[in-house]
Amino acid sequence: ATAGDRRFRLGFEKPAPKPADAYGDQGDAWVAVATRWGSVAPLSGRNYWQAQQAQSDVTHEVRVIDTAGADTSWRIKHQNRYLHIVSIIDVKQDRNEYLLLCREKVA
Predict the structure, then answer these.
(1) How far is 36 from 56, CA to CA, in rounded Å?
(2) Quick one: which of 11, 20, 37, 76 could link to 6 by a disulfide (CB 3.0–4.6 Å)?
């Protein structure tokens, strides 16, 4: 991927502790950690089938230069969508480009 391919501003968010409500439900709380430029592509056809063999429910590939320390408990906010990180791959094992396999969840 080239710099021109990374045209989206992506918000990296991690889970945050949230006090329980009156019913004991803690729900999901997220805190913004970083913003990075990256590319986002929905998986389709053969790529979707191959990703399903390795990681269940993977719907998108995200490519970034820096992951901001993300792990698989984090999610990425892309426009009005939330992509939960399933796997992080150092593409060439040189820490110059990362492929994040993600699962879209409706917020």
Answers:
(1) 26
(2) 37
